[in-house]
Amino acid sequence: MTQELFSILDHDNTVSFDPSLDTGNTGDTGIMVGDTPDQLTVEVRTHLLESARLKEEIAEHDVGLIVAAARLIAKALQSGGKVLLCGNGGSAADCQHMAAEFVSRLRRDFARPGLPAIALTTDTSFLTAFSNDCGFEGAFERQVQTLGQPGDVLIGISTSGNSANVVRATEAAVKIGMTTIALTGCGGHLADIAQMTIPVPNTNTLYIQEAHLAIEHILCSLVEQVLFGRGNGEAEPTGME
Asked: Considering only CA atoms, which of 113, 186, 175, 112 is closest in space to residue 144?
């Protein structure tokens, strides 16, 4: 094992990493100099418990919103509409994740037809061309104006609720006559314009994103159940009752 110390530069701070240090667990994995295994353990437990506490709070207060949002999505899909999704960074990854589960399926053992969903975050040629020529703030709005139709759904994901490109896309969707659903943190402008907002009552981006992922999985699961029931095998639509 090399004894070389690696430096990680973070603005004005330099953090040293020694890969030769033994954490006392499974071998020479290395730890950040200045941290102790106890401190790292506390950080892990604190993060997991706070993330779990936040999900418990959502379970207490926002279940009705999640169910209502799933019914809106299912109704649109049943009527021949599609789902468009937009967000930035980790929220962009969430859009792609959620779209993949609609088009593919959430559970391997539940075969059902694909559901039309498009993540507006994936076309790098369009995103770079439009952003270069016209500005990034309109990149999602332009796609909504081009691809969106009355009866479709736009899901806008923003931990701050103030991402300008998501806000503009939602405003465009409202004008078209689409159903608009927002996943946010504590609020922001997005909550004022979306037809339905599912807020995560926290200001820490990490915790908000972790809660968003759980909500997104639940939405996909509920939409599948509303449209196709809970059985296995090749599913058939069951209606909205």
From this structure: 175
